[in-house]
Amino acid sequence: MRVVFLDEVEGVAHAGEIKNVADGYARNFLLPRKLAAAATASTLQQAEARAKAIAQEQEKVDEAARAVATKLAASPIVRHERAGEQGRLFGSVTASDIAAEISSRIGSQVEHRQVLLEAPIKEVGTFTVPVTLTRNVRAEVTVEVTGTEED
Q: Residue 17 and residue 124: Cα distance in Å, rounded?
């Protein structure tokens, strides 16, 4: 069945997209929840207008995110953690720690899911961590972890 998505369905489509989906998926899930409508001439026109409006709104959000990305790239995040003599941390620096630091810098909330850290940082050094700010904007943040030997 050919449908026009009225709202974003994660992993399937964005609002305004036109896709062919299984009949049962459309009848039992998308249509009752008003996430999509059958693709007719009038719904296609409405979807195109809505897609343009969403694209303009997304472009404004992306522009603001690009400004934040340049601000984040300008200076590294420095973390002082307890470490042993070989440079291994007693704890670790996690995506939540990095997200909290970024949130305090930019003044808006960044969730730990947006920080694309493969594994927690467990040693002293400089690391480049990608951060997804919006669907279209990804920033590279430099994280410097320094060790302090406290007794």
A: 46
